[in-house]
Design a protein that fits this description.
With 490 residues, the protein is of the alpha/beta class. The protein has one domain: Amidase signature (AS) enzymes (Alpha-Beta Complex), CATH 3.90.1300.10. 39% of the residues lie in helices and 13% in strands. The protein has 15 helices and 11 strands. The strands form 2 sheets. Strands 4-6-5-10-11-9-7-8 form an 8-stranded mixed sheet, with helices on both faces. The protein has a 3-stranded mixed sheet with strand order 1-3-2. A hairpin with a 2-residue loop joins strand 10 and strand 11. The chain is globular, with a radius of gyration of 21 Å.
Length: 490
């Protein structure tokens, strides 16, 4: 029988294997997760809504039947979902906002159904920036999530609650979304692996076909590459009515492809931003270090970067986010039966929505054309290179509320937001896969390195990340507070 304290020694696939082997029950695994949330969440504020009773009932039902016969890859593993963009039937999704707090989902999202089918046990919701509008996670509705590596620092955003929950050992993996870096930025800030899949790889329905005009995607933040691959195996594939779908995977399964390391990949790297400007020396140094590591593994590494109009992209992203923020507030108002009042949403949400109402439709059409131009530039670049290596974030983890959604200065806010996520947003615009890999630490803080590849080549990134994980393992790197046997908050 696995002991209670062994919970954190296993990734999600490892816990499921123990349950299927009868070495530990789904209930014991769940109670280990609940105990850690009880002890640690008051310090990090990662989990904002809990489903303990429902999760206990699911675990008990599993324990009553034989798990040994199950073929589900994540049988009985506790699972947290981001409080944004995903629905659980009969439960509320607040999108990190006071204006959504009484919204109750009439049905599961398609991706929720796929998570259930994979055996995951839904345990609760993680904190999110309001409507995903920040590279931090400090909504007025629930307060700031804190980085387990340094609780005065941000865990990144907007999926900061998911990343903090995994880094603090509450769960081995958690659902997240990414519309401009919201999987990769928190992964970088918390020393974790985070893949943003290709556009259309995972479903967005059944209620909508896309988020932020195709920029946003669902996936996960994990401790191991194999968990990310297996989760993508379980969740990917189009659903009826999708506006587009990712190309075929090119492999039988993402998980099986990890067992056959790809050799001699053509890898480019850049340490400057997409406008050619130098960035923080710690993040630039992390890229150079990763480039040397990849060369030592037998890959062809050169310095190169794609060419596109970075200023035009910055403007286009502002327009897309403004238009979509105005739209979601209006859509929520129709359901609520009243418009949002200014004191029900954060100042940045309100101001961005007002911009969305003022912008003419022609501006949104032009912005989408700009995003497509970036996609074509990326497409041409990835005809010459298999992978591009960049910093994930423009700087190490920020002090909490550096990029503060409570400010009344939208222009200054957007400048700060764009400066921090300048390396992540182009890949959402192009729809190509990108991942943050935890290869570097500086002054005790994690610094991720981003890898991107051509449209549909998710398997290439997962395979290369697995090589890096084997060469420089990170699973046992934990915040010092909880690195030993004492897993309590004190």
């Amino acid at each position: 029988m696995a002991s209670f304290d062994e919970y954190e020694k296993h990734d999600a696939l490892g816990l499921a294997a123990l349950i299927r082997a009868g070495e530990v029950s789904a209930t014991e695994v769940l109670e280990a997760a609940i105990a850690r949330i009880d002890a640690r969440n008051p310090l990090v504020n990662a989990v904002v809504h809990r489903l303990d009773a429902q999760a206990r009932a699911s675990a008990a039902a599993l324990s009553l039947r034989s798990a040994r016969a199950s073929m589900r890859p994540f049988e009985g593993v506790p699972w947290l979902v981001k409080d944004s963009g995903i629905q659980i039937a009969g439960e509320r999704t607040s999108n990190g906002s006071r204006f959504w707090r009484d919204h109750v989902a009439p049905h599961d999202s398609t991706i929720t159904q796929r998570y259930r089918a994979a055996g995951l046990n839904l345990l609760g919701w993680t904190n999110s920036a309001e409507n995903g509008l920040s590279c931090e996670t400090a909504p007025v509705a629930y307060g700031p999530t804190r980085n387990p590596w340094d609780t005065e620092r941000s865990p990144g955003g907007s999926s900061g609650g998911a990343a903090a929950a995994v880094a603090a050992g509450l769960v081995p993996a958690a659902h997240a979304t990414d519309g401009g870096g919201s999987i990769r930025i928190p992964s970088s800030c918390n020393g974790l692996f985070g893949l943003k899949p290709s556009r259309g790889r995972n479903p967005f329905g059944p209620d909508v076909g896309e988020g932020w005009n195709g920029l946003s995607v669902h996936h996960a933040i994990t401790r191991t590459v194999r968990d990310s691959a297996a989760l993508l195996d379980a969740s990917h594939g189009p659903e009826t009515g999708d506006p587009y779908a990712a190309p075929p995977t090119g492999v039988g399964s993402f998980s099986q492809d990890l067992l056959r390391p790809r050799q001699g990949l053509r890898i480019a790297f850049q340490t400057v931003d997409h406008a050619g400007q130098a960035t923080h020396p710690a993040v630039a140094g992390a890229v150079v270090d990763a480039a040397h590591l990849l060369a030592s593994l037998g890959h062809q590494v050169v310095e190169a970067r794609p060419s596109f109009d970075a200023q035009a992209l910055k403007r286009a992203m502002f327009v897309v986010v403004a238009s979509n923020t105005a739209h979601v507030l209006r859509a929520r108002a129709l359901v609520a039966g009243r418009p949002a009042s200014r004191d029900e949403v954060e100042p940045i949400t309100w101001l961005w929505a007002q911009e969305g109402h003022r912008l003419p439709g022609v501006d949104l059409a032009a912005a989408i054309n700009t995003l497509h131009a970036v996609g074509r530039a990326m497409g041409r670049f990835f005809e010459q290179h298999d992978v591009l290596l960049t910093p994930t974030c423009a700087a190490p983890p920020l002090p909490i509320r550096t990029v503060d959604t409570r400010t009344e200065d939208l222009a200054a806010y957007y400048d700060a937001l764009h400066a921090y996520n300048t390396f992540t947003t182009p890949y959402n615009c192009a729809g190509v896969p990108a991942a943050s890999v935890p290869l570097h630490w500086a002054d005790g803080l994690p610094i991720g390195v981003q890898m991107a590849s051509g449209f549909g080549r998710d398997a290439v990134l997962l395979n290369l990340a697995a090589q890096l994980e084997a060469a420089r393992p990170w699973f046992d790197r934990r915040p010092e507070r909880w690195a030993g046997a004492d897993w309590g908050a004190d």
